[in-house]
Amino acid sequence: MKDAFGLPQSLLVLGGTSEIALAVTRRLIARRTRTVWLAGRPSPGLDEAAGQLRALGAEVHTVDFDALDPAGHEDALGKVFAEGDVDMVLLAFGTLGDQARDERDPQAAVRVAQTNYTGAVSAGLVCAGALQAQGHGSLVVLSSVAGERARRANFIYGSSKAGLDSFAQGLGDALYGTGVHVMVVRPGFVRTRMTAGLPEAPLATTPEAVATAVELGLRRRSETVWVPGALRVVMSALRHLPRGVFRRLPV
Fold first, then answer.
1. How far is CA 151 from CA 64, 100, 142, 184, 202, in A?
2. According to its UniProt record, which protein family does this protein belong to (predicted)?
């Protein structure tokens, strides 16, 4: 069960090799989390991540999970919940894609959408149902400021995150009053392997900073968390710019 400050004792991570997710997990282990399930496609990276977390003192299990296999989500994730209550689910899988390539290859673009949105809808609903059945828990969804307004530079990725963000907000409303808390996390540019080599955007942040914000959000039972917080004002301004002006911005 969670403590009085909303921090989980047990954690299921969807996207078990995500640098952001692992930073969040390390921080929570340092606070209170003792049992972790890392869900992802079997790989040396997943095994290595599990080993590193075990070295921090947590009991860690790996779960075979593929965002692109919605038909298998209920079975794979159901086995985790069958082991006992899960205090928090962190939905952190996703792919950035390659905008220039994906515009020329519709199937590659569809794969981005299926991973970031369709897979998240499936897994999110499975986990939400299980959390509701147990009567408590948090579902933390890693979104992105890219979903706030489609940009020429990454509108395929941004549109998939916009869908995810809207879904998560609606799910939070649907679960209000059930004992299940949904928190949407909207980071800006995060320095990870996924963004390596890309031009760094203003207000760039780190996985550790996102982890700090997630912890604070859990303690406050926030519904939306911006990382860094200043992005809330920046994105509000960008979202309301006239389209003709927005098109001329170097974004």
1. 34, 13, 19, 21, 15
2. Belongs to the short-chain dehydrogenases/reductases (SDR) family.
Instruction: Please pick, among 157, 167, 189, 226, the residue that the annotation labels catalytic.
Output: 157
Q: What are the backbone dihedrals phi and psi of residue 17, each rounded to the nearest 5 degrees, phi first?
A: -110, 5
Q: What is the pTM of this model?
A: 0.93
| Cα 12 to Cα 144, 150, 161, 177, 199, distances in angstroms | 20, 31, 21, 22, 32
> Do residues 156 and 105 lie in contact, with contact meaning Cβ atoms separated by under 8 Å?
no
| Full strand arrangement of the beta sheet holding 137-142 | 59-64, 35-40, 10-14, 88-91, 137-142, 180-187, 224-227
Looking up tokens 């031009």, which residue turns up?
A: 199
Q: Does 117 participate in catalysis according to the annotation?
A: no
Q: Which whole-number Å values give the CA distances from 127 to 64, 123, 132, 134, in the listed order? A: 15, 6, 8, 11
The pLDDT value given to residue 251: 67
Q: Is 132 exposed, middle or buried, given 0-12, 13-18 or 19+ CB atoms closer than 10 A?
A: middle
The two three-digit tokens of residue 124, written as one number:
């999110």
Q: Does residue 70 have a pLDDT over 90?
A: yes
Cα–Cα distance list, 36 to 8, 47, 75, 126, 213 (Å) = 10, 13, 18, 18, 20
Question: Are 63 and 37 within 8 A, CB to CB?
Answer: yes
Contact 166, 154 (CB under 8 A): no
Task: Please tell me the distance from the alpha carbon of residue 126 to that of residue 19, in angstroms, as a whole number.
Answer: 24
Output the pLDDT for position 4.
47
**In this structure, are residues 184 and 201 in contact, taking their beta carbons and an 8 Å threshold?**
no
